[in-house]
Amino acid sequence: MTLYGEKSPPADDRPTVQVTAVTWPADDPEPPVAAAPPPARTRSRRLRLLLAAGVTTAVLGGVAGAGAYAYAGDVPRGTTVLGAELGGHSRAEAARKLRAELDRRAAELAAPLPVRVGERTAEIVPAEVGLGVDVDATVAAAAAASAHPVSRLVGSRSVQPVVTVDVDRLHAALRALVGDQGRKMTMPAITFSGTTPKAVHPKPSLALDPQRAADVVRAGWLERQPVAVPLVESHPATTAEEVDRLVDELAKPAVAAPVTLRTDKGSVTVPPKAIAKSLRFTADDAGKLTPQVDVKRLRAALGDDLAAIEVEPRNARMTIAGGKPKVLEAGRAGQQLDAAALGRDLLAVLPKADGREVTATLKPAQPEVTAEKLDGLGIKEKVSSFTTRFTGGLSSPRSQNIVTIAKKVDGTVVLPGETFSLNGHTGERGYRQGYRDAPVILDGKLVPGVGGGTSQFTTTLFNATYYAGLEDVEHKPHSYWFDRYPAVIESTIFWPDLDFKFRNNTPHGVLIDTSYTASTITVSIWSTKIYDSVKTEYSPRRNITKPRTIHLTPGPSCIPANGIDGFTQDAYRVIRKDGKVVKREKFTWRYDAEPRYICGPKPS
Description:
Number of strands: 38
Strand order of the largest sheet: 24-32-31-25
Helix content: 25-40%
Distance between the termini: 137 Å
Shape: globular
Oligomer: single chain
Largest sheet: 4 strands, antiparallel
């Protein structure tokens, strides 16, 4: 018969031994009456075969035993992590042993880690930045350390633990070390002073790279040595040479001559001054500078010149009548230039010296707010109201400025999710818009300036939205405190640099209603009431400073002042709903001491 060696174990990584097949002599079915003794050669061959079978069995047994030893547990034998022997154990047992080792080293691992950024050093507390060992991930890495059979049988290996860190918290902790060693990236820019382009060349930043810093700290934590975190230089995507090329090839030729804008309803000349106001060079976060024509700015720069060819759509308007909001005027469709096409086509002709003409298309323009939309906005009740007082009656230039801006804002509807910008809504506040000269703060002192008094309306509007619980987006208190305003909760405004913005963070529309008397200005917010109450809690004033006396040259531009103390104070907006405080916001401001200005020479 034919005999084959033992079958190997089921397919896996264990070694197998194959035995060569042998053939035995055929057995006699009927043995002879007198059997002769077997020849010596036959006995010798049988002995050798039996011996080979015994050796094979021994080899197979040895290999099987070695395989069982090498493959005992999930983690290969000889594997250590942080000095703890994890080899030959299941994952669960290896995790238990590693946790025991981490517990033994707990005090060492929790100790502050010395960190150096540039020339400055400090210590960070590992727990505060999320430094730790991910035990399960480390055991998984140890189990995968080697799958080769020989490697599992002999040798040793040390596996690095998987270290975790909270990148954001670490970055915040390290930022304080950077200080003036770092520098912000100077973004490339091209601006216009009148019709003269001005180039701003980019400069690289020197700052922390959050991910790189995390990698360095992760690698150095367990070494218990000071960790040096590098400051990384990052360059803007647009180079200085590219900025200069944009100035020469686009910015300068753009304002060298007017552009003719042709439509089916007539033509409009776009002068260089309007081009300069609408041609924008915007840098993204990477510092890539991209030119574009801001059609909204272009429309504002052209002003009444577009009225001959465009019909501006008009939103539906609301007013307060008999103590209730009602629709005053339905919306009206208009016809305006196709903004996207105009911006693209105008940008294409600006580099040219000749052929500076653009054919524009007029498109129907629907109002953003219709009467039907107003009805569904939930504008039904007064949510808040705020009043400030002024002197001089309605005949004074300052009072007239307050009334002018109040009328411009009256009846404005802010849709849910929309951000209202006071500068964006009123535009430039100059003589053409009906504003007059009145005292404004400039370079720390009161001087005559167009639009003086509009800050009082801004403060009144800010407080009305503040007590309505609406989201404060942008405001800036005055340098000095005036007792006609609530401390901290007040705002100045100055075109175009200082703005006031709030966001309608409710699911309802917001109507701004303004009214005035000979001595007061009032702003009311109408919507659907969400909160039970909105109140202000003040901290005591601190860091009090006294005014100094300054003598000025007498004249029309000199406005005397009595002087006001400087101080720092906190104001907390406390918002309650369903009897509970749902929001508590802190506002802090530091007021300078306003000098006592005297229009006259110092006494001798």
